[in-house]
Write a structure and sequence with these properties.
Elements (H helix, E strand, L loop, with lengths): L3 E5 L3 H13 L3 E6 L5 H8 L3 E5 L10 H9 L4 E6 L4 H10 L3 E4 L4 H12 L7 H12 L8 H8 L2 H11 L4 H8 L3 H15 L4 H11 L1 H5 L11
Parallel strand pairs: 1-2, 1-3, 3-4, 4-5
């Protein structure tokens, strides 16, 4: 017997594709909705057996507030978080909010379906190794300080930090190159590496992430930074 489902994700194409695949496997998909705002109210109003709730940033503060609201208003609804490869902190946050499991974006449809069936049965629907890390984080939260800005800062080299600060200040490639005493091609390479390490697709996203996590405050001023050595 099929499961009565909802698929809610910021990316409409992903939500609709997953909903179509699940319909073909005999499940009753009530809706495939895109907006992040209002997602909880939509789920509460339709009251499915299982909801697949998408997120792009599972470690971001407040990301699982919709899960909390859904479980408060409709405790019988099993919520499965659909997201990227998570950190133990992200998994822990999902479970702490009341989620029944976590399904990675790169999971095969068979794996998604198994997770749905487990969630409906009241079981934890998450890979054992991810679950172990999540429980360790929940039991020992002090072992991994919740400092996203510091974590991101440690991923970048000093030169990449300077590039990020300049990007956040609105400098284009030409100004970055001039300010650091490097070639524009080298500046472009630094920018691309920063975007890749931060997991964002544009300079604007990088600047917003740095500002939100406090990374810019930790990076300090640009004064007294000399040209890059040849």
């Amino acid at each position: 017997m099929g499961v009565r489902l909802m698929v809610v994700d910021d990316h409409r194409l992903l939500a609709e594709a997953l909903a179509s695949a699940l319909k073909l496997r005999g499940h009753r998909v009530l809706a495939a909705a895109a907006p992040a705002a209002g997602a909880a109210d939509l789920v509460i109003s339709r009251a499915p057996e299982v909801c697949l709730l998408g997120t792009a940033t599972p470690a971001e503060p407040g990301m699982f507030d919709p899960v909390v609201k859904i479980k408060r208003e409709r405790p019988q609804v099993a919520v499965l978080v659909l997201g990227p490869v998570p950190s133990p902190r992200g998994i822990a946050a999902a479970f702490a909010a009341g989620a029944s499991g976590y399904v990675r974006h790169d999971e095969r449809i068979e794996g998604v379906e198994r997770a749905i069936m487990k969630a409906r049965a009241g079981e934890a629907a998450v890979a054992p190794q991810l679950l172990q890390g999540a429980f360790s984080e929940l039991l020992n939260p002090a072992a991994q300080p919740d400092d996203e800005g510091q974590r991101l800062l440690q991923m970048l080299t000093p030169r990449e930090v300077e590039v990020l600060v300049r990007v956040a200040d609105g400098e284009d490639t030409r100004l970055i190159a001039a300010g650091m005493g490097i070639a524009p091609s080298t500046a472009r390479t630094h920018v691309q590496r920063v975007l890749m390490k931060l997991g964002v697709g544009s300079r604007l996203e990088a600047a917003a992430l740095a500002a939100r996590t406090g990374l810019l405050d930790r990076a300090g001023p640009l004064e007294n930074r000399g040209p890059e050595p040849s």
